[in-house]
Write a structure and sequence with these properties.
The chain is of the alpha+beta class. Helices cover 35% and strands 33% of the residues.
Length: 225
């Protein structure tokens, strides 16, 4: 009799267990697509829209190849007929005066080594032309989309490039030995005690008759010994 009752008990319990399992397993399956569907619009709202008109973008290249990249890109714009989409290519530079071997000379220094500015209307075609230019390693931006510069950033960069007076390049620092190359103390040597970038002055400790005397000079009157 015990053997006869066991199969009936098992047979009655199996449908109850399967129904509970089916209802339990179906709930997460139904909830998953709802969760994904609700999150998608939130992510899209965080993405900034692509500007319709021209904007300044930054491309990255190997340092020292900025002018070469500009030349290559300008050639591609010409040959691929993209003048109506890519308008200008600029390597930000600034003139500096440096003293070497007692002589002043003006040199051109890159403000942002390894970067080139491009004024363009962003589209799939213009992106392809710029991105695949020899020497270009990529756009500067968030994710896969290039990020345009803000107008105030562009104005600040262009203002530095258009400065009337070139800056003075200081090749020495406090504590280093320098040589005076101009003025009444010409050819004297001393130790840099202070550098005033705002006034473009340097204070040098020069030895006179065994005593260190501070002498204030212009940046261009001193060079690294």
């Amino acid at each position: 009799m015990i053997q006869d009752l066991d199969p009936e008990g098992q047979f009655e319990q199996e449908p109850v267990e399967s129904e509970e399992n089916e209802s339990f397993s179906e709930q997460p399956v139904l909830s998953e697509p709802k969760t994904v569907h609700q999150e998608a619009p939130a992510k899209q709202e965080d993405i900034e829209p692509i500007p319709e008109g021209p904007a300044w973008y930054v491309i990255h290249c190997y340092s020292g190849y900025e002018n070469k990249v500009r030349h290559n890109l300008e050639q591609r714009i010409e040959t691929m007929g993209m003048k109506d989409r890519v308008f200008d290519v600029v390597v930000p530079t600034q003139e500096e005066i440096e003293v070497r071997d007692g002589k002043r000379r003006t040199v051109e220094r890159h403000i942002f080594p390894g970067y080139v500015l491009v004024n363009m209307a962003l589209s799939e075609e213009s992106w392809f032309v710029v991105r695949n230019t020899p020497g270009v390693t990529g756009f500067v931006g968030m994710g896969n989309l290039p990020t345009p510069l803000r107008p105030e950033e562009v104005s600040q960069i262009l203002k530095r490039m258009e400065a009337d007076a070139p800056t003075v390049k200081v090749t020495y620092k406090v504590g280093e030995r320098v040589r005076i190359v101009d003025g009444p103390f010409n050819d004297f040597r001393g130790i840099v005690a202070e550098i005033d970038m705002e006034r473009t002055k340097v204070r040098v400790m020069v030895s006179f008759f065994g005593r260190d005397t501070p002498v204030e000079l212009d940046f261009l009157q001193v060079e690294k010994a």
